[in-house]
Write a structure and sequence with these properties.
Elements lengths: L7 H4 L6 E4 L1 H15 L4 E6 L6 H9 L3 E4 L2 H9 L7 E3 L6 H10 L3 E4 L2 H11 L6 E6 L28 H8 L5 E7 L9 H20 L6 E3 L19 H11 L7 E4 L3 H4 L3 E12 L4 E5 L8 H5 L5 E3 L6 E7 L8 E9 L6 E4 L20 E4 H6 L14
Parallel strand pairs: 1-16, 2-3, 2-9, 3-4, 4-5, 5-6, 6-7, 7-8, 8-9, 11-13
Antiparallel strand pairs: 1-10, 10-11, 10-15, 12-15, 13-14
Helix pairs in contact: 4-5, 5-6, 8-9
Amino acid sequence: MIDTIFPIRQFKHLTTPFYYYDLEVLRATIDAVKQQVDGKPFRVHYALKANANPKLLKIIKDKGFGADCVSGGEVQAALDAGITADKIVFAGVGKADWEINLGIDQGIFCFNVESLPELEIIHELATPKNKTAKVALRINPDVQAKTHAYITTGLEENKFGINLSELDEVLQKVKVLRNIDLIGIHVHIGSQITDMSAYADMCGKINELQLYFENKGFKLKHINVGGGLGVNYEQPDAHLIPDFESYFRVFREKLNLRPGQIVHFELGRSIVAQCGSLISKVLYIKKGSTRQYVILDAGMTELIRPALYQAYHHIQNLSSGLPAQTYDVVGPICESTDVFATDYRLPETKRGDLIAIRSAGAYGETMASRYNLRNLPDSYTSDEVRGVEFYPNKKRPSRSF
């Protein structure tokens, strides 16, 4: 059994707030994925938008995963981490010319194309280079992901992807674009999905799309089903490894694959969320007339998910074993939305206690900002903490914009 163990003694020497990554949990999570995909026509592209920390990317690359990127910066980060271009897929509704050129010049595996104008621009940029850009059409299957509205992406009318009603026009254009190679389709319906029936519904739509493309004379070599598998934010210790077995079983049983077809997955949150925690220190305990507040030195600048999505994160006091009290746990940012939790039960808490906000490895550090001109948080891994002596007066340099 894998457990997250916090080296509190070493934490006391580090300047908070910072991100802490348990690499044993990360490696075990990746191994659980590999157990499900090895020996099958499945390929995993890690979604960098979840977390692009180079320390994590190196491990993910060493385990053989590719990269799912949504910006030129992410494509470059993947390349810098040693992920080869032939394992990189590039999505995003607003790819700039320089980003497309980067992908073409590097020879990435595939552009996930989200509109007819984008398809035309990729062809326009590839033609003078005498190169052929491989593309998959990102199609909205009109499947309800059964998740938060802000992270649902596969409905018929959405800024992402190509609507089913537009497909005829797009395929007519594909036939005349000589520097475009249509190799597959891409479907992504949302994020933090825990109801496997949503994926089963998506597979049914993909099976219908396969027949549609074949009737139009296109043989698809690749089916990209996106990602979106959720994690357990309420009980991270009991569910450190997501249910990859059930997830991959859906695609094994529900997709009608043709001989030689390869299925591509773009997993992000489910790989890195549980290995990461935001470590913060209590600045003040403020008592109001009816409530009491734990005021941390971390806020929405370090972890924006609670403010942006009203998302829940499990919170632990690493320093106290006293009986529990009820608190509102808040940050120092000059915004009323800078709240991690309300009416939250914690052991009696005092100034200087160390607090861990769990399941923060995905969409935490990568979404950090310098609002209020705050420093960006540092990050440490379990390997570093075990192997390096930290000193209490070591100061972190200020980060530039």
